[in-house]
UniProtKB/TrEMBL annotation:
NCBIfam families for this protein: TRAP_TAXI (TIGR02122)
Pfam families, sorted: NMT1_3
Record lineage: Bacteria, Pseudomonadati, Pseudomonadota, Alphaproteobacteria, Rhodobacterales
UniProt keyword annotation of Signal present: yes
Name recorded for this polypeptide: TRAP transporter solute receptor, TAXI family
SUPFAM superfamilies: Periplasmic binding protein-like II
Record's keyword terms, sorted: Signal
Signal peptide positions on this chain: 1-27
Annotated InterPro entries: TRAP_TAXI
Length: 353
């Protein structure tokens, strides 16, 4: 059994256990929650931007840190009171890879939906200069990111789809990966992030010893979007590098309002947050994380379907009252009839007004 699949099955079992562990606050009232990422990452900043916008409409959206995309995907699917999560779009392809012969994984995929597409993240592979392609990673030692992270997920899927078999896959974070590469302990490492990203700005990365691997495998290009890391994005990189990119998406679940009160309230929560993002999108682009500038709400990734509760929130007749909105127009007074006007004049003449 492949290491990625073993890890996936372990994660599914863990999340199923966590499903039952509700806090007293969750038991007492209906919460709205979004799973994001680490404390310094882009995902959590996006979550906070959305939460701040929702607060202006009287909606409390709790933002939670997580290990990354796979935890978020399974959390939205399994945890109560967790209606939204930010994930890399290839998490769906990752799960489908194992769904054909595993009922548990297949069930995890059912009902997942997209609320909005977000921005693209390029797949970086920093490697020794003598390695020139993905195929050259066969038999090498490669770091693929920490478990549950988007980098781990994408790196695992990329290697499997490209049929590349490193001698060892190390599950360590980007900072430790860079240190290991500089020390000659590994041959390459994956990192998925929107370019340019800070870690590759390090002056310790010597262009004579290291470079970014191009990614041009036809199978991968059918699953991912093409991407380019422009020349000069990093101090060691003088030429543009063709890579692949994975889109971050806001994920939700296909709640059925007619099923029970929990589904009805969850659907309403998704519709509310959808309406907030759509109606305050320009504000998010102006005041939120800079990556909002790259969000194209029409760029739906393949394999994902929009949720019905999302479309409900996008209905032109769906309204929320939010700070800064123009106040509703006051109803126009109905012109008084001639008879009523005469009556008022006569009353005033008789008893005063």
């Amino acid at each position: 059994m492949k290491p990625a699949r073993i890890f996936l099955l372990q994660t599914l079992a863990l999340v199923a256990t966590l499903t039952c562990l509700l806090t007293p606050a969750q038991a007492q009232g209906f919460e709205k929650n979004i799973l994001t990422g680490g404390p310094s990452g882009t995902y959590i900043q996006f979550g906070r931007n959305i939460s701040d916008a929702a607060a202006k409409c009287g909606i409390t959206l709790n933002v939670h840190e997580s290990a990354g995309s796979l935890e978020n995907f399974l959390g939205v699917r399994k945890r109560r009171f967790t209606q939204l999560g930010i994930v890399q779009s290839d998490v769906l392809e990752y799960l489908k890879t194992f769904a054909a012969d595993d009922p548990g994984v297949a069930r995890a995929i059912l009902g997942v939906r997209i609320a909005f597409p977000l921005y693209n993240e390029e797949v970086h592979i920093l490697a020794r200069r003598d390695l020139n392609s993905l195929a050259d990673l066969n038999g090498k030692t490669v770091a693929i990111g920490v478990e549950d992270s988007g980098t781990f997920l994408t790196a695992s899927l990329v290697l499997d789809l490209a049929q590349v078999n490193p001698e060892e896959r190390l599950s360590i974070n980007a900072e430790d990966s860079l240190a290991a590469l500089l020390a000659g302990q590994i041959d390459a490492f994956f990192y998925v992030a929107g370019a340019p990203t800070k870690i590759f700005q390090s002056p310790e990365i010597d262009a004579e010893r290291f470079h970014l691997l191009p990614i041009n495998d036809p199978t991968l290009q059918a699953v991912y979007q093409p991407g380019v890391i422009p020349a000069g994005s990093y101090p060691f990189q003088q030429q543009a590098v063709d890579v692949i990119a994975v889109k971050a998406v806001l994920m939700t679940y296909e709640y059925d309002p007619g099923r029970n009160p929990y589904h009805r309230a969850s659907c309403k929560a998704v519709s509310d947050i959808t309406n907030v993002i759509a109606t305050r999108f320009n504000e998010l682009r102006e005041t939120g994380h800079p990556k909002w500038q790259q969000v194209d709400l029409n760029d739906l990734p393949p394999g994902w379907n929009i949720g019905a509760c999302v479309n409900a929130g996008l209905d032109p007749n769906y309204t929320l009252t939010c700070e800064g909105d123009a106040p509703p127009a006051l109803p126009q007074a109905t012109p008084e009839s001639a008879a009523n006007s005469a009556y008022r004049k006569r009353i005033c003449a008789s008893i005063g007004c």
